[in-house]
């Protein structure tokens, strides 16, 4: 009677199968020990460093490299057996599928992790990271598509026709959806160039509002009267955008007019008076000058800065300056000018009428 281990099952002896199973079990134990001790040791070392790049590499090795290495070694062990051409083809196809699967997952993981790590190092807000996740989904889909084409090529299929078909189909889709693609590329411009972010108050043409959401196709604004405005990204990118939230301070240019009856002494004192009033109101004084002689008034122009973009603070400061200026002129007897004309009465050189001009 033939010993059991020498019996033939298919094209291999039972002993051959036992040896293969033994090697597979040995490899499994070795990789378990490798993962338990070496990976833990590497995690301990990377935990001492300041950067997280090496941490991500160790995680990638644990999640993708080691499992693939185990499957690849098992494939190498199994192929030492004698199999029919059909079974060898199936095993080879299975290895191709496994290789592409782990390669794509590894690339996607490293790309996602490193981009997020870069965003955190730049101290990007959570809303920006959320937007990035939506963008990365599109990139991952493209990588999976490229991996699928590579898999078909490895399996022996002619991918030239597929790629050509995708090219023609892509052109047709691009022509049919050019507005959508335009908005998509505009979204990429908005994301990387950052002309505005969620929470910014912007003015685009005659439209103004606070950015509530930046989508792949449209951005949502909340107007001052409470309406929600949905604007295509392409229209936003094409237009001049006034971002008031990024205003560091407000520059104010005002002018006042006093009557021609104002004395030279008061005219010389007005620039200094304006400086004192503006400084006392908490604004930054720039300049004040007698600018010109108008039809009805002697005109002064003054410039100051409010060191905040806050609109309410701006209005409060301007109001305080105007009230203080009115009070100061009233105390000194300086008159604000208004459109008027002087008529001298015939026969009396000293008699005159000041009439307002409508």
Automatic annotation (TrEMBL):
Span of domain Mechanosensitive ion channel MscS C-terminal: 253-336
Keywords: Cell membrane, Membrane, Transmembrane, Transmembrane helix
Molecular-function annotations in GO: mechanosensitive monoatomic ion channel activity
Family to which the UniProt record says this protein belongs: Belongs to the MscS (TC 1.A.23) family.
Domain Mechanosensitive ion channel transmembrane helices 2/3 intervals: 138-178
Pfam families recorded: MS_channel_1st, MS_channel_2nd, MS_channel_3rd
Species for this entry: Hydrotalea sandarakina
Limits of the Mechanosensitive ion channel MscS domain: 179-246
Database matches in InterPro entries: LSM_dom_sf (IPR010920), MS_channel_1st (IPR049142), MS_channel_C (IPR049278), MscS_beta-dom_sf (IPR023408), MscS_channel_2nd (IPR006685), MscS_channel_C_sf (IPR011066), MscS_channel_TM-2 (IPR011014)
Listed transmembrane segments: 14-34, 65-84, 90-111, 132-151, 157-177
Annotated GO CC locations: plasma membrane
Membrane topology: Multi-pass membrane protein
Subcellular location: Cell membrane
Record-given protein name: Small-conductance mechanosensitive channel
